[in-house]
Write a structure and sequence with these properties.
By secondary structure, this protein is of the alpha/beta class. It has ten helices and seven strands.
Length: 258
């Protein structure tokens, strides 16, 4: 390094890949060799809920197949814009369970924290696509309120970090928050509800595994996957790294309801 030059922060590979995610429906269709007859409806639906999908996930899709099960999870469709009687924007009752910024408390002994509104992939079936993250998010500024809530509820023995996806946050921010949770003697278990080991396996870094292995909390990583086609060797390796860190790994099609 040349004396006097500033030390540049190296951007982790997973953050680079996250920044290169596909957000334009036309690019997605072109990569898969699909016609643009899908494009008007996709762009219309994406205005209400944007498209976002990592390129490595797209690489697992079948070219030329509009019914590919991975594509159907992420392609915006005209049906999303329909108003259907009996259906609403809060299907699992999150708003009624909102007790403090970022805190959802539905069941005795367990709280869920919406650690962030960001995701690496925008699943079209997302039941929190209308969640008011700007006002109800346990972001860095609001973590104190979330921690105060957990501290003053000694019956809470399990904390779930969800979102959005908590693994879109840096390891520094996550580890700082987990260390603060460790100071709550009644908290015994930490659950991370995430899709990143599937859609962005490079997120499972040495730094992530280091702070997972260093916490006193019993840690469970609940990984959201919907189809066998999602699970390639890179996902297997990411799950193995998590298991080697001492975390219990579980794969579920519904990882965010709590």
């Amino acid at each position: 390094m040349i004396p006097g030059t500033p030390l540049l922060r190296q951007v982790p590979d997973w953050q680079t890949a996250l920044g290169q995610a596909i957000t334009d429906p036309a690019e997605l269709l072109d990569l898969l060799g699909l016609g643009h007859e899908w494009l008007p409806a996709a762009r219309d639906a994406a205005r209400a809920f944007p498209l976002r999908v990592p390129r490595a996930f797209v690489a697992r899709m079948r070219r030329g197949d509009p019914a590919d099960p991975l594509l159907r999870q992420v392609l915006p469709l005209a049906e999303e814009r329909l108003v259907v009687e009996g259906f609403g924007p809060d299907p699992v009752g999150d708003l009624a369970a909102h007790k403090a910024p970022g805190v959802l408390h539905k069941y005795q002994g367990r709280v869920l924290l919406t650690a962030t509104g960001a995701c690496a992939i925008h699943c079209r079936y997302c039941f929190r696509r209308h969640f008011p993250y700007a006002e109800a998010n346990a972001s860095t500024e609001n973590w104190r309120a979330a921690l105060d809530y957990v501290t003053t509820h000694p019956d809470v023995h399990e904390v779930i970090l969800s979102g959005g996806d908590p693994l879109t946050l840096s390891d520094r921010r996550l580890s700082e928050f987990v260390r603060a949770l460790e100071d709550c003697a009644h908290v015994e278990r930490l659950r991370l509800h995430t899709r990143l080991p599937v859609v962005l396996p490079e997120r499972v870094t040495r730094e992530l595994c280091a702070w997972l292995s260093g916490t006193r909390l019993k840690t469970v990583v609940v990984i959201h996957a919907n189809h066998a086609q999602e699970l390639d060797d890179s996902v297997r390796l990411a799950c193995q790294r998590l298991a080697d860190s001492g975390a219990t790994c579980s794969i579920s099609p519904f990882c965010c309801v709590a």
